Amino acid sequence: MSGIFDYHVKESGVNTKSYYQNIQKCMKECAKKQENISFYSRFMKNWRRY
Fold it and tell me: Per its UniProt entry, which superkingdom is the organism in (predicted)?
């Protein structure tokens, strides 16, 4: 299935290397944001105890 997707990406003229690098960058940013959300969520749960 991913082969078909890659084929259509190439046919559209998109540089697949930069395309996948962009996806990887976005995934790293999402992971950083998830860490922040998790931290603040735990912080607020503990803060409410006091």
Answer: Bacteria
SS3 49: coil
Tokens 């990887």 label which residue? Answer: 24
Whole-angstrom Cα Rg for the chain: 19
Quick one: tokens of 16?
């697949």
User: Quick one: DSSP state of residue 12?
Assistant: T
Question: Length of the chain, please?
Answer: 50
Name the residue ranges covered by the structural domains of the chain: 18-50
pLDDT tens profile 21-50: 888 888 888 888 888 788 878 888 877 665
What single letter denotes the amino acid at residue 9?
A: V
